[in-house]
Amino acid sequence: MKLSYLKTKYRFDDLVMVGIIILLSYSVVLLVNAYLSGVHIGDWIWNRHQNQFSWYSRPLFIIPACYYAYKQKIGFIIGIMTLLLTSLFWFAPPVEVSETISGYLDWERQLFFNPNNRQPLLILSITVFLFLFLLFYAFWNRSFWIGLLVLNIGNLLKIVVSVFFGGDAGTAAIVPTLSSMIILNVLAFIIWKVKK
Known about the structure:
Layout: H1 2-36, H2 41-49, H3 53-56, H4 58-70, H5 74-86, H6 99-112, H7 119-140, H8 144-166, H9 174-195
Helix pairs in contact: 1-5, 4-5, 4-7, 7-8, 8-9
């Protein structure tokens, strides 16, 4: 019985790794194709990032990354976080972009990608790294509730920073961020009930 369980567990990990490799290969093909077509890669990524599928898909990466942090498998965490990064350009640019979305992205671009002031981008990078480190460290040490707390604080901080610094434009981050929080908390509740 135990041997059968171990085989199933490793088969699942193998399937996940194959999925990671396929999606990373897809990302490379997209990038190479864009490069060969002569487009400006930064603009190409930015235009595709306006598709809200890349905003709402975050829990699809955070949940399995936390699972593999709990299982203490760092290769899977790195692979899944790389997928999260490349998912910015997986989806085709939307035909129409609402003023709220374009306003938020313009604000983000001016704040974080201003060639005359690199400080906001540096602060963002450090904050994201610290958030991910604390999140995965909590799950690595089997601190399920602390990990959930880090997730919720991180999401709430994103909303606060977006609205405080972005004003009306920053409100575009509220719905995707709250939807991620709801999904993650509902899933945590289900896991808690099952384990209980």
